Amino acid sequence: MTAHTDATTDDLLPEALLDFLPCATPDRWVEAALDNPALLLIDHAQCEKKAASTAMSLMFRYVDRPELLTKMSQLAREELLHFEQVVGLMEERGIDYSHLQASRYAEGLRRHVSRDEPQRLIDTLIVGAFIEARSCERFARLIPRLDEGLARFYRSLVRSEGRHFEDYIGLAERYGGKAAVAARLAVFAEVERELIESEDVMFRFHSGVPEVADV
């Protein structure tokens, strides 16, 4: 698996994260993001809120796993702080926060999560790792094209979201073993690749390639 794109992106991201993702974000998504800055920020805020909710849900479901409780508690606090920061940036730019229909991405990954424990936990952690890693990669793709304030903020997020990716993978391997996790990663990687590289009817932070209108 590899998501190497260009020197700028590679300089911002750790090698392990680039190798983890099955593909790079297509250029058409980057162009759509630059053409829809308000929509990008609104959905980004929504993603941060959902990430905090996911971490807290894991804390309530798996109360007998102290390592998970600690990591998810830290992650939830960070994601809520990021949510507040994104909303603050939106206010500065005159963008109103509103609810958006979610993209197909997260649900597309979760559709392949096992219903049976302990595999359900392992798969859920793997999905979390893909979401965090893809977020980092998209921040890195956008940073060279953004205004100074937003680029600086996204650069700070690359570092924290990168830690979240490592936390999810570390927990998955702790509870499932490296060999078993590697096998499941291969399955989810192909699902993730399809979601990222195929055409998508909506533009969102984690959406696929925007559809091209008929001429």
UniProtKB/TrEMBL annotation:
<dbReference type="InterPro" id="IPR010386">
    <property type="entry name" value="tRNA-Hydrxlase_MiaE"/>
</dbReference>
<protein>
    <submittedName>
        <fullName>tRNA-(Ms[2]io[6]A)-hydroxylase</fullName>
    </submittedName>
</protein>
<dbReference type="InterPro" id="IPR012347">
    <property type="entry name" value="Ferritin-like"/>
</dbReference>
<dbReference type="InterPro" id="IPR009078">
    <property type="entry name" value="Ferritin-like_SF"/>
</dbReference>
<dbReference type="Pfam" id="PF06175">
    <property type="entry name" value="MiaE"/>
</dbReference>
